What does this fold into?
Amino acid sequence: KVALITGGGAGLGRGMAERFCAEGASVAILEIKPDITHDFEQRATERGFEALGIVGDVTDPDSARDAVAQCTARWGRLDTLVNNAGVTGSSHADLVDLDLSDWNRVLEVNLTGALICTQHAAPAMRAAGGGSIINMTSISARTTYPSRGAYSVSKAALESLTLQSSVELAKWNIRVNSMSLGWFRTALNEDTYQIPGELAKRNLTVPIGRIGTLEDCANLAVFLAGDESTYLTGESIELDGGLIAAALKSTGLLARIRPAT
It folds into this structure.
């Protein structure tokens, strides 16, 4: 299969890209940072993998169009799109104090960028007989993060986009699903994990007993991209070690202990 992964130069995106290569896929990444884009292509090629690093911005339709064109020109098809590129925002303000430029940027990358890439990838997948689109969302779509409202809203909207596009693209045999991630340590949140005791604290909140790893993320992505999931579409799969399930139960328990007055 041929896969295009946005934001595939580092973190979870890099982990998925390397795993897809190891599974035998031809992999292109669309990444805004030239240095890590070239690093991925060089390292993957040296290991004998079919890999392509493309510098571009998911919010730019020309970048998305060019990335898809490069995939089809080199490998003749496109089977998988992973909409992984995302930002959390530069502001740590509550919504009432949030600068609109920060709000717009988060939604532009996390939501509109996914739409743009889907618009350009879907026709190529149709020509290939079908495919799989994977949107990277977060449990924050169902919860809240203090002073990160734009991020939570963007991920909730991306899950809605997953539902809408799964229905519209089904006629082309294109499946669309979301991976809703819980606690994972990436470059986007490394500053949080630098707080003394933060990792241990988060591990304790997860019923499985630990936060997620790159391998956990890649395992699910490979499944959703592969032929074993051809009847699965329109789903948002929580990859969180049971975090949301435990939180829901805890909320119910808290309500009984401290009833509303």
